[in-house]
Amino acid sequence: MDPLKQLFYEKSQALGKEVRELLKEHGNKKVDDVSLDQVFGGMRDITCMLWEPSLLDAEEGIRFRGYSIPELRDKLPRAAVNGKEPLPEGLFWLMLVGEIPSKEQVKWLTENWVRRANVPEHVFRTIDALPADTHPMTQLSVGVMAMQNTSVFAQRYTAGLNKTEYWDATYEDTMYLIARLPRVAAYIYRRVYQKGEQTLPDISLDWGANFAHMLGFEDAGFKEYMRLFLTIHADHEGGNASAHATHLVGSTLSDPYLSFAAATNALAGPLHGLANQEVIRWILKMVDTLGTSKPSREQISEYVKSTLGSGRVIPGYGHAVLRKPDPRFMAQRQFAEDNVPDSDLIKIVWKIFDVVPPILTSLGKVKNPWPNVDAHSGALLMHYGMKEHNYYTVLFAVSRALGVLAAQCWARALSLPLERPKSVTTKWVKDYLEKEFKVAAEN
Ligand code: CMX
Which of 94, 221, 331, 385 is the residue whose CA sits 20 to 30 A from 417? Predict the structure, then answer.
């Protein structure tokens, strides 16, 4: 058994035992109750799902196994040569087994993924069958689905897999899928935007730097940004749409390929991951409309108000859970301050950060007026020369695989069952209120 699998096995056996004992003693204790606002309002804040890799606090932001983003930037292993940002491999290790890995453990993981990274030829041919103007997220989803015929879980299940072995097959699929994903994603980029001229993998590079290389970006700054990007987008607890989609589909014992394809489809919505493409489009339209690459705060303010006036949201702002500026935004801002202090586009992002929150607050209905993760990434990608906005969400998806697949390993190891919440009709709600009202009147 490989060392990470062995560690995961030990950890999951121990936690599985703890969970069984905990539920035996406390299984009927209440952790939440549900209001009609929540039933009609997207199930916000209902505590009803288990997700080991990370936990989101509305005020503080995300913590991965207890570590905040600034702590991860300090503690996770970095690239051997001039590395300042964490290697995403290290975060995957941490999310899977709850321990900060050593440099040697991360090196082992990088090399393991290199060995698993071969993508079957039919996957490329399947993507090639799509019109080139198919959105890159759709191409990614199709690419992931095309790999499903190699699923270890699906094959072993068909052959008669013992329940106690689900976690092992899921771990194998997870490791192969993460290893292959950058190659598939880069293939789509080069196919659509670089005349199909492919850049072959460089097996001496770490996972993030090799992805940058396959995309065709050799700049050391871009590689560092990719390492940071792939780390901070990896997970945001279990209730967000891409994570929840993975969890829901996986709960039917669909394998990790089918489950992660669902995540990509959820991430492709403009209220979720697609917002990173929408942000940069919106900023470039503003620059174009105002006729200046150095708009004043007053000009930006007018533009923001005209966007709101036309019944649209300000992309990159707001969040379903967070109530403070997103630490993922702040990490990118700090990266930009340290590495790219002189970009007009990035300075616009910072001015928007000054201007938008008071305007959104003044509407009186927006629960979180602060920037989210998607507000900053486009300007940094533009700076490094990646100008194809439709592609940005694919980068998010490659990162998101780390968290949602680590969670799927846990779901199988803890034998989490089929997910099946209760839904009701409006008539049911009216009848319920009527009945409750009568009960209240009788009392
Ligand atoms: N601009 C304008 N209005 C906004 C807004 C924004 N950025 N954010 C929220 N609102 C509005 C909502 O549309 C809603 O209006 P209605 O009552 O008229 O429908 C009202 O404020 C209340 O919404 P909320 O409770 O504050 O926010 P939700 O939890 O419903 O939605 C989110 C959260 C992210 C979908 C929303 O803030 C939004 O649309 N933001 C812009 C899109 C975006 O950046 N998405 C990326 C999120 C991060 C990610 O997943 O990648």
Answer: 94
pLDDT tens figures, 273-283:
999 999 999 99
Same domain, 300 and 409: no
Q: Where are the alpha helices (DSSP H) in 61-102?
A: 69-75, 88-97
SS3 345: helix
Pull the structure tokens for residue 279. 């942000």
> How are strands ordered across the β-sheet holding 54-57?
54-57, 61-64, 67-68
Residues involved in catalysis? 272, 319, 374
Q: What is the pLDDT of residues 391-407, one digit of tens each?
A: 999 999 999 999 999 99
Distances, alpha carbon 189 to alpha carbons 145, 213, 407, 419, in Å = 18, 12, 28, 35
One domain for residues 34 and 93: yes
Select from 242, 313, 353 the residue to mutate for testing ligand 1; criterion: most ligand atoms less than 8 Å from CB: 313
- Nearest Cα residue to atom 48 of ligand 1: 272
Angle, helices 344-363 vs 327-339, to 10°: value is 150
Tell whether ligand 1 has an atom less than 6 A from the beta carbon of residue 233: no
pLDDT per position as a tens digit, 186-213:
999 999 999 999 999 999 999 999 999 9
Tell me how far the alpha carbon of residue 279 lies from the centroid of ligand 1, in angstroms: 13
Most ligand 1 atoms within 8 A of CB, residue of 233, 244, 281, 317 to mutate: 317
User: What is the DSSP secondary structure assignment for residue 310, as one 8-state letter?
Assistant: T
Q: Residue 305: CB within 6 Å of ligand 1? A: no
Longest CA–CA span in the chain (Å) reads 76
**What is this structure's pTM?**
0.97
* 165 in the same domain as 127: yes
**88 in a structural domain:** yes
Nearest CA owner, ligand 1 atom 20? 366
Does some domain include residue 423?
A: no
Q: Whose CA is nearest to atom 16 of ligand 1?
A: 365
Q: In which domain, by residue range, is 362 found?
A: 275-389
Is ligand 1 within 6 A of the CB of residue 271? yes
User: 412 CB under 6 A from ligand 1?
Assistant: no
The confidence band for 117, taking pLDDT boundaries of 50, 70 and 90, is very high
> Looking at the structure, do residues 136 and 207 belong to the same domain, yes or no?
yes
Residue 408 forms part of a structural domain: yes
Q: What angle do CA 265, 271, 274 make, to 5 degrees?
A: 55
- Tell me if 156 CB under 6 Å of ligand 1: no
Mind listing the pLDDT tens digit for each residue in 155-190?
999 999 999 999 999 999 999 999 999 999 999 999
CATH of the domain at 352: 1.10.230.10
Are 262 and 353 in the same domain?
Answer: no
